[in-house]
Specification:
This protein is mainly α. It has one domain. Helices cover 71% and strands 0% of the residues. The protein is built from ten helices and no strands.
């Protein structure tokens, strides 16, 4: 359920959902910085970005897109892979961290729904609606970032997998990545890609939460 639809259908649920949904994009970025820090890169820490303070992370356009399109972004956390001894492993783990954080956030919301689905009451119904939105947004964010187009995380994961074979090509694409994504959205290709990766994530979650 998109945020604007939620606002129309249930304003109270919208108000309750806004904070965890904004933190979905924040946690995504903090996860990148935290894993980089644990692997030897202090760049995010020095920049004061290993914090959940929204003022340090929220991007106006990315936040607006979260409301309008159901996916958005925060300011990218600065990471210097060259500070990590094993650069290939660093690229893989750091790039995967944000996606994994969103999947775990979605898993937690779906687990809550599963545990209390048999319960009744207006308050639980409200929380159920909020958890649905949290799960949907986080799965969408993770799915979007799995697309291997720079600057999305999927492209960096692909760089780490292929390492010296295609990173140069993908790096050259990065300045045009935003326009490529807009083009895919305009052509109606982006949503099926998000849908495919979203289906993959939901299938994975169902293994642990049948």
């Amino acid at each position: 359920m998109g945020l604007l639809k939620l606002l129309t259908n249930d304003p109270l649920a919208f108000v309750l959902a806004v904070i965890p949904l904004l933190f979905s994009v924040i946690i995504h970025e903090v996860a990148h910085g935290w894993v980089a820090y644990r692997m030897g890169d202090p760049t995010a820490k020095w920049a004061g970005r290993l914090t959940l303070n929204p003022l340090k992370h929220l991007d106006p356009i990315g936040t607006l897109m979260l409301f309008l399109a159901g996916f958005g972004w925060a300011k990218p956390v600065p990471v210097d892979i060259n500070n990590i001894p094993d650069r290939r492993k660093g690229l893989l783990f750091v790039s995967s961290a944000g996606i994994l954080a969103n999947i775990l956030f979605a898993f937690g919301a779906l687990l809550f729904i599963r545990l209390f689905s048999a319960s009744s009451g207006n308050s639980l119904l409200l929380i159920y609606t909020v958890c649905q939105s949290v799960a949907y947004i986080n799965i969408t964010l993770a799915a979007l970032n799995l697309i291997p187009i720079p600057p999305l995380d999927g492209s960096k994961i692909l760089m780490g997998i292929l390492w010296r074979r295609t990173p140069y090509f993908l790096t050259r694409l990065e300045p045009y990545g935003f326009f490529i994504i807009i083009g895919l959205l305009y052509l109606g290709i982006l949503n099926p890609l998000i849908g495919f990766f979203g289906w993959t994530i939901v299938t994975l979650i169902r293994i642990f939460l049948p």
